[in-house]
Amino acid sequence: MSELSVNHLLGIKYLNEKDIQLIFETADHFKEVINRSIKKVPSLRDITIANIFFENSTRTKLSFELAEKRLSADVINFSAAQSSVKKGETLIDTVNNILSMKVDMVVMRHPNPGAGIFLSKNVKAAIINAGDGAHEHPTQALLDSFSIREKLGDVTGKKVVIVGDILHSRVALSNIFALKLQGATVKVCGPKTLLPKHIESLGVTVESDLRKALNWCDVANMLRVQNERMDMSYFPTTREYAQQFGINKTLLDSLDKEIVIMHPGPINRGVEISSDVADSKQSIILNQVENGVAIRMAVIYLLASQIK
């Protein structure tokens, strides 16, 4: 059996193209499984996985938990809000206490960039990064690319624009890495204040005009404005943002061609995307959610098979 070149999934930047293809082929198989009447496989009956979330998450957490249960793993859920972390316990102590219960794998979301990397060097378990600050969110980027591949047949050669709050978005960074690795061309579009200073150094171009960006692309990935990460105002009003960088049905229908609309969720309806676009036939937002479970099953399965 082919193996991943890594023992942890810490970020897309540590993967190579073969890793991504292996994850996708494995996810194809699991997608068939989750569409059967019996949605479980006994693949990971002897593996215990801890989901450790130091930040709120609904969809990612549910998606990982469902993926783990579909693979018949034993699952422990840990929420930092109700934990000893509040009493001053360190991250390593917290995780080592959990690992002493004979846990094989840790899925972690943490507000600090690099928390997963730090953990992987200090504890004996496979680590999956479920989002670290504004740094990376690798499984989201994988499911986004997988969804593009499913819809358009391939990612190579496709033109993808990522629109919105690039500055605070781990989804944007992981997506840029994943798309570039697979040979897609990437543009970013958003208010100047929400674009990182040296974004071009990642091999992407900046387009300030949303209509131009949409006429250029095959796929538009619409990101929400992350108000919870903002310590100041980055644009005048939400209404003004929606007018300049939001996508509605009138704009979508006026384009020269039909494009694919994506969104990692949660959606701020009426801000970055209107309801009639989110629910239109050009949108693959619900496919992304379904593919998230298959991709996470694939990642967990492949990493678990390397645990000695």
Q: What is this structure's SSE topology?
A:
Layout (H helix, E strand, L loop, with lengths): L16 H18 L13 E6 L5 H12 L3 E6 L11 H9 L5 E6 L4 H8 L3 E7 L5 H15 L6 E5 L6 H12 L3 E5 L15 E2 L3 H7 L2 E4 L15 H8 L3 H5 L6 E3 L12 H4 L6 H20 L4
Parallel strand pairs: 1-2, 1-3, 3-4, 5-6, 5-8, 6-7, 8-9
Helix pairs in contact: 1-11, 2-11, 5-6, 5-11
What report would you give on this structure?
With 308 residues, the chain is an alpha/beta fold. It folds into 2 domains: 142 residues, 3-Layer(aba) Sandwich (Rossmann fold); 147 residues, Aspartate/ornithine carbamoyltransferase (Rossmann fold), CATH 3.40.50. The chain has 11 helices and 9 strands. Strands 7-6-5-8-9 form a 5-stranded parallel beta sheet, sandwiched between helices. A 4-stranded parallel beta sheet has the order 2-1-3-4, sandwiched between helices. Strand 5, helix 6 and strand 6 form a beta-alpha-beta unit. Helix 2 crosses helix 11.
Q: How would you sum up this structure in a few lines?
A:
The protein starts with 16 loop residues before the first helix and ends with a helix. Helices cover 38% and strands 14% of the residues.
Order of helices and strands: HEHEHEHEHEHEEHEHHEHH
Which spans have pLDDT < 50 for at least 5 consecutive residues? none
Please give the radius of gyration in angstroms: 19 Å
Number of strands: 9
